[in-house]
Write a structure and sequence with these properties.
Oligomer: single chain
Number of domains: 2
Strand content: 5-15%
Shape: globular
Structural class: mainly alpha
Helix content: 55-70%
Strand order of the largest sheet: 4-3-5-9-6
Largest sheet: 5 strands, mixed
Order of helices and strands: HHEEHHHHHHHHHHHHHHHHHHEHEEEEEE
């Protein structure tokens, strides 16, 4: 198929994947970026001069918002042009999804003879579909970084340095793309000194942005104590999460190494057996923390996902992979992305997103060398169907979860409060965006539940971050949001299963479960008077 027709197919597939979810409520960290964008609309020169309630206690945005303001400025422009509704904002930012997909296809075309099907499968994976489409930094880092790699591969290294520098400004973890960029420079014959200058030029904008423009944000990032975070997460839990998230978010693409392609049969079987043994050991009860209760189905799911990830990495190390087109690029890219995901404060689908393309494209390169075109096409079509079906189901779960917060916020706006009574809420994310303006956030650093008055109404979500729980029982009304699809992205009430957006909720990116998506509790606060002291005995 000619290149232009392939590009049209890629762009059309991106639009097809996005259409069902254009009206999704603003969700999770999208709200954090939108809050800064709305401040920019009020005062463009002081984007962080407001109080941001995001990490349990409200703080100055200059210390609470640990990202660059590049993405909020883009969102502010989009909101000014579109009015800020969900569907118009997502439509306005959809071109960046298309740019990222086209750049991935263009890069893959340099190393694969038939890149269309592998690229479509990558785009259909849960990790890509659910992480690139939201209005968060990943959309712009993938578009800018992949475009930069394409330019470097085409020897347009000056413009490539500019785009990669912007990507690192958008999100500092985009620095992992320096590794494949260096590999491409090496393949193009760039000398070490010039390569070092290029890498310094690509990093310079991010350093200037951090050191000169927003030193408060740099201090906030430094305040996130990495060793403490890793100690809290636990080494086994982090390793389980990294392997399971990578395998689960890549879905069918990371199972491609199971297909024999070039390696001797005996060594291929030994490699798969070794990956299976390590996966089963890692998810066995022998390595569980004390008091952990893990369902057998979650162990099996985690072991299968880890097996896929380990098999993909083993494919990179096989002798047959050496000397192939793109091998150096895929290896450098995958190792840098894996290190960044491990060092991130939490493992999530977003943190392993940069890992998915190199592992999948490396597997596609091996299949292209060993299989006939007709065999590969049938194999890729089956992979695409499986990935797309899984991603649509998970996308619907994510859509329903986001919609639950919007519905809860709209419902509280209709509550008729008695004169002098207030409406309070706990939690962040999408709920914070849809609560009425007159509602108050329960601030644990400013009195917490003591600030809630007698007879006030409080809305409490269950699956949310930063939840100061009530110290006593009160008359309440509960309503639960369920879904017939037996898949969950976030664990319900500490089940330690799925944590697509953070492994703080579980070591799996998604889990088989029929637990509720969310439960909201509406309470009418009644303060219990202190007990009357009894008179002492004489």
């Amino acid at each position: 198929m000619p290149e232009k027709r392939e590009q049209l197919a890629v762009a059309g597939f991106v639009v097809l994947c996005a259409l069902p979810f254009l009206g999704k409520a603003f969700h999770l960290d999208e709200v954090e970026f939108l809050l800064v964008a709305r401040q920019i609309l009020k005062d463009p020169w002081h984007p962080l001069s407001f109080t941001l309630s995001w990490y349990l206690c409200p703080k100055p945005a200059s210390s609470a918002f640990i990202h660059s303001t590049l993405v909020p400025y883009i969102l502010a422009a989009a909101e000014r042009l579109t009015g800020g509704s969900e569907i118009t904002m997502r439509l306005a930012c959809l071109p960046f999804d298309i740019v990222a997909a086209l750049a991935l296809h263009r890069l893959a075309r340099r190393f694969l003879d038939k890149p269309l099907w592998p690229v479509l499968v990558i785009l259909a994976c849960p990790g890509w579909l659910l992480c690139v489409s939201p209005l968060m930094a990943e959309k712009w880092t993938m578009a800018l970084s992949l475009s930069a790699l394409c330019l470097v591969a085409e020897r347009r290294i000056g413009l490539g340095a500019v785009l990669l520098g912007l990507a690192v400004i958008a999100k500092h973890t985009a620095a992992v793309f320096l590794a494949p960029a260096a590999a491409l420079l090496y393949l193009n014959g760039v000398k070490p000194r010039r390569m070092a200058l290029w890498l310094a030029a690509a990093l310079a904008p991010a350093l200037i942005d951090a050191l000169l423009l927003e030193p408060g944000r740099l201090a906030a990032v430094a305040a996130v104590d990495l060793p403490l975070r890793m100690a809290e997460a636990g080494g086994v839990h982090r390793l389980r999460s990294l392997l399971a998230f990578t395998g689960g978010c890549g879905a069918a693409t990371l199972l491609w190494p199971c297909a024999r392609a070039g390696a001797p049969r005996r060594r291929h079987l030994l490699t798969l057996a070794g990956a299976a043994w390590v996966s089963c050991l890692l998810f066995s009860s022998l390595l569980d923390p004390a008091g952990a209760s893990i369902r057998p189905v979650d162990r099996l799911t985690g072991a299968l996902m880890a097996f896929a990830c380990l098999s993909a990495f083993a494919r990179l190390c096989e002798p047959e992979a050496r000397g192939q087109r793109g091998d150096l690029v895929w290896s450098a890219w995958a190792l840098a992305a894996a290190a960044a995901a491990w060092l991130n404060w939490a493992v999530s689908a977003r943190s392993v997103l940069p890992l998915l393309p190199p592992l999948a494209l490396a597997g596609a390169a091996r299949l292209e060398k060993a299989w006939k075109a007709a065999e590969r096409e049938r194999f890729y079509m089956a992979s695409l169907a499986a990935c797309f079906a899984l991603s649509l189901c998970l996308g619907w779960i994510d859509f329903s979860f986001a919609e639950a917060s919007r519905a809860a916020g709209s419902s509280t706006a209709a509550i008729q409060l008695e004169p002098g009574r207030k409406l309070w809420y706990t939690g962040h994310w999408g709920l914070q965006n849809y609560m009425p303006q007159e509602a108050f956030f329960i601030d644990p650093c400013a009195g917490g539940w003591d600030a809630v008055g007698q007879g006030d109404t409080v809305l409490i979500p269950t699956v949310n971050a930063g939840l100061p729980l009530p110290p006593m029982r009160a008359p309440s009304l509960d309503w639960t949001i369920k879904s017939a699809l037996p898949l969950r992205l976030m664990s319900f009430e500490g089940a330690n299963q799925a944590g697509f957006f953070s492994n703080s909720w579980g070591f799996l990116p998604y889990a088989l479960s029929r637990a509720p998506l969310e439960r909201f509790t509406l309470i009418s606060w009644r303060k219990t008077p202190p007990p009357t002291p009894r008179p002492g005995r004489r």
